[in-house]
Specification:
The chain is of the alpha/beta class. Helix content is 30%, strand content 20%. Helix 1 (38-52) crosses helix 7.
């Protein structure tokens, strides 16, 4: 016998958000991943972020590919739309869905194998096109479903559980996203909920391609001495350049901050990101410096986390293509076929 569902009954005193949902309403099925897997912590962070943002679950479209990471959408937002695509093909499905219905909140969850190997071409195009979505890579450096081979993000010189040394250079997903044109790029650690939840909230509110690389240790195959994706290694080598506080509106804010520079970045929808910079010299609006900082820290064996880059004036795919304001799936035959006179006018403009 297996227990894969959670009780539907909620205690009447559970707190609700502004749209009337409890945190339990944002949960999914019981996880079948290994106990202690970092992916489950990411699912919990997504649940918390969506509950705090007052997102209605039925307005979310969650998409994934193949792999341990791509199983996780089953474990959160059980009342949302979901699509589990072919291996590495989640970005094209997300692009098509977003073009058809711009009214949904798009959340893509992938892995380092799904996005950095077989799906790297798809990842490149969804970033450069600016599809309005939050793209989360649950990065553990191994192929967990096929018993722990190195993935494309495994650091050169790191060791497998059996002691094999990785001789290939690593693909840095955050640097790649920056080079491809993503307008929101962040990195976090699955074990740092205080950092990860605000990053997810800010990414969802961002208009454009928002990418978050989350180091998520694989307890079965990549959580040992010699791994650079283990819990101990990331905790010891994590260098956060900033901490993010996110508010969905411009209401009066009163917060105590630790020592360090604080900057406010307003978003399209009126929300505010307030960055507490632990490194005063770090500028998250400078794409080239962000790439340089990631490279410098990687050379020292450090994991740079926080909001790495943000373009507050970003545009999404619909703005690039100048599509109509109404979702394409809501257009009727009258709008799609306006008649011969309109067609002739269009043809005349092209002659």
């Amino acid at each position: 016998m297996t227990y894969l569902t959670k009780p539907r009954l909620h205690h009447p005193t559970l707190p609700v958000n502004k749209v009337g949902y409890t945190r339990r309403d944002y949960e999914g099925k019981v996880s079948t991943l290994c106990a202690g897997c970092g992916h489950d912590s990411i699912s919990a962070a997504i649940i918390q972020a969506c509950w705090e943002l007052n997102v209605e679950p039925h307005r979310v479209a969650k998409l994934s590919g193949i792999g341990c990471s791509s199983k996780t959408p089953d474990y959160f937002l059980g009342n949302s739309h979901g699509f589990n695509s072919v291996h590495g093909r989640m970005p094209s499905v997300a692009t098509g869905a977003n073009l058809a219905n711009r009214d949904l909140v798009y959340l893509g969850v992938s892995g380092d194998g799904d996005s950095a190997s077989i799906g790297i071409g798809q990842f490149a195009h969804v970033m450069r096109r600016g599809v309005n979505m939050t793209y989360i890579v649950e990065n553990n450096g191994v192929y967990g479903l096929t018993k722990g081979q190195f993935s494309a993000t495994a650091d050169q010189g790191s060791k497998s559980k059996r002691g094999v040394v990785n001789s290939d250079s690593a693909i840095d997903m955050a640097s790649l996203a920056l080079q491809l044109g993503a307008t929101f790029v962040a990195r976090s650690f699955s074990g740092d909920k205080q950092q990860l939840v605000p990053l997810i909230k800010a990414a969802i509110a961002h208009s454009g391609a928002a990418f978050i690389d989350v180091i998520s240790p694989c307890v079965a195959f990549n959580n040992h001495p010699g791994s650079t994706k283990s819990y101990d290694y990331v905790r010891e080598h994590n260098d956060a350049v900033n901490r993010l506080d996110f508010w969905p509106s411009r209401d009066a804010i009163s917060v105590d901050y630790a020592e360090g520079e604080v900057i406010e970045v307003p978003q399209h929808d009126g929300s505010i990101m307030r960055l507490r910079k632990t490194r005063k010299e770090y500028d998250p609006t400078d794409r080239l410096k962000a790439i340089d900082q990631i490279g410098q820290h990687h050379a020292r064996g450090e994991v740079l986390t926080g909001l790495l880059y943000l373009n507050p004036d970003a545009e999404d795919l619909h703005e690039h293509l100048n599509t109509v304001g109404v979702s394409l799936n809501k257009l009727t035959a009258r709008e799609l076929c306006p008649g011969a006179a309109v067609l002739e006018k269009i043809n005349a403009s092209l002659r």
